[in-house]
Amino acid sequence: MSATRQILLALVLGIVIGLALNTGTGSLPAGSIAWLDANVLTPLGSIFLRLLQFVVVPMVFSALILSLTSREGGPEVGRRAGRLLVGYVLTSAIALALGMLVAHWLSPGSGAAGLVSQTTTGRNADSLSQWLVGLVPDNPFSALGGGSLLQVILAAALIGTAMRALPDESDPLRRIIESGYKVTLKVLELVLKLAPLGVFALITSVIATQGLDLLLRLGMYVIGLTLALGLMALFYLALLAVTGARPLSFVKNFGQSLGFALGTASSGATLPLALGNARSYGMNESLANFALPFGTALKRDGAAVLQGFNALFVAQLFNVDISTSLVITVFTTGLLVSFSTAGVPGAGLVAMTTVLGAAGLPLEGVAVVAGVDRFTDGLRTALNVMGNCANAALLDRLDNHSSPSFSPAEVAANGAMPEQKTDKAAPCIL
Question: Do 308 and 97 form a contact (C-beta atoms < 8 A)?
Fold first, then answer.
């Protein structure tokens, strides 16, 4: 069975078993589900995510440096970064607008007035100025140790640019980094063998402990947010089709990453798989090694949809007049916040306080949606990954590097990505 099917099967089994545990609470010993979650499910899921995070930072750091120091990497980086940023802003604005339009159309907050008695304990997100200062690391070691992908990208860009300016002197260092990159890929290959178990533990924990009661009480909220996320995904598929970027091949090859993002709700943890899937899709390796880590740190379509949808939901919940100034404030703040949302589970709720505060909306709205956040977090993460990979695919198409490296028969036979005989350092997944 291919890795993609194993992950999807683990998702389905986790949902089924989680529901069975949750609905069978009365027939089980008191506290048994809490014990199972605290001592088995949550530790297994956390161990798997930590193993992936162990690989992500060295992979991003080395991949970017190798991309910058390759023959075509240096001169292309500035142009690629500029085009990607333009695409990020435009598509994130569309995602935010879709979230707001669907919330206005369905008015999910109007039917949830009985939930506004809750209070929130969420902390405020960092301001924009704090976020900008936080981009610059104190030293390269703190960047690698801190786990911030934006700092890792900046550190790699500085070191890679310096290495390119000194090709002869930096050649020994480049060989060490390339060797370390290959070792990291082998570690990743071993870790990914645990992917079905990790995804199963994560999703079972959520369903078993939270159940579907709150999901039913906020049914229109979940339906509306899911609809907005789905519309944005369809927009990307249409955009890929119009530009000739092979949407069916995109879904087939990146399906593993999308399913993994759905189960883990972590864009950072999905990056290693996305790099491998990009290779099977036929994306230019130098472009993928730069664009996908860059987008993992910045591109958050799911967060953009969430901020626009949630702001109008809270306004409806508390009967706040949705004026033009409120819409403009939500749109502007939500767009900025979407780029600073961390790629970890639950980060959208923290960022939500910034948008609500800027628009003058009650922060108690955070507590209302907190209970069902994990149910939609995976969907939002899958859209984050899809948007990141789609923008890279569109840039690849624009750069005339869209010819697939493997035939469809090879891809289908391997289910993910066959071994590629090349001298370049490239991701090798499973």
Answer: yes
Average pLDDT over residues 164-186: 87
User: SS3 for 350?
Assistant: helix
Q: What is the CATH number of domain 3-414?
A: 1.10.3860.10
Q: Which one has a higher pLDDT value, 287 or 122?
A: 287
Question: Do the Cβ atoms of 86 and 290 come closer than 8 Å?
Answer: no
Under the banding of pLDDT at 50, 70 and 90, the label for residue 147 is low
Instruction: Give pTM, 2 decimals.
Output: 0.70
Q: Distance of alpha carbon 184 from its chain centroid, rounded?
A: 21
CA distance 409 to 363: 53
What one-character-per-residue DSSP string does 123-158 give? PPPPPHHHHHHHTS-SSHHHHHHH--HHHHHHHHHH
Secondary structure element (H or E) that encloses residue 104, with its range: helix 73-106
Rg of the Cα trace of the chain? Answer: 22
Query: Over the stretch 310-343, which tens digit does the pLDDT of each residue have?
Result: 989 888 888 888 888 888 888 888 887 777 665 5
pLDDT digits (tens, 9 = 90+) for 398-422: 886 444 444 444 444 444 444 433 3
The amino acid at 412: A
Q: Residue 403 has what pLDDT?
A: 43
From the list 289, 264, 263, 258, the residue with the least C-alpha distance to 275 is 289
Are the C-beta atoms of 174 and 163 separated by less than 8 Å?
yes
Q: What is the DSSP letter of 429?
A: -
Q: Are 201 and 41 spatial neighbours (Cβ–Cβ below 8 Å)?
A: yes
Residue 246 CB neighbours (<10 A): 18
